[in-house]
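Chapter review: from sequence to fold.
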Amino acid sequence: MKLSEKIIELRKLNGMTQEELAAICNVSRQSISKWEADIALPETEKLLILGNLFHVSMDVLLKDELTINAIKPAHSCGNNAVKEKVTEIFEGILIKESINDENIIDFLNINKIELWNTGGKPKYWTVLFFTSSQKDLPELFSKVMLSNPDNGENWFVDFKAGNKKYIVFKDKILKYQIGNPIEKEFVCSECRKMGILDEQMNWSE
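The token string follows.
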């Protein structure tokens, strides 16, 4: 069964219209229609929302050979589901060498790992592309980021949740609403105080 067919079946099993599912996923009804017609695929963030909403794993959603016969019933459906707040999904990139406690990785879903050649020391950075539904993720990151104010070295991790962008240093959490230039400039000015260069602030949004 294709992902498109699974979305249709899960939506109908939970008594939802395309409009209701679109509201939960924060997309247009046309997007849901495209997903169900197998014209477009949901982004990773939207797949996580679908999995949490319908209580199915990513394997069940993405692997054609797996069916959804064993899905757990959702406790809310129809209009009630629209009113239910979807768990905030964080999505971002972490340089593994920027943390002092690898236990933080237990709270992340790692989607991809890359090695970046730095041209310096260390020669390579291990880059983790992650998502997470851990509610206090910004606070957890702020406890493990490396910092050495004496030589102006401050590591940060940047990630987003919906339309909110987070820039987290050791013991310092900055955030702004994506699309709000005033909030973003304030965050950038705070980053400059931490010794961050402007070219390092080209965060993906």
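Two observations follow directly from the output. The first helix runs from residue 3 to 13. The beta strands are 90-95, 109-117, 124-132, 147-148, 153-154, 157-161, 164-169, 172-177.
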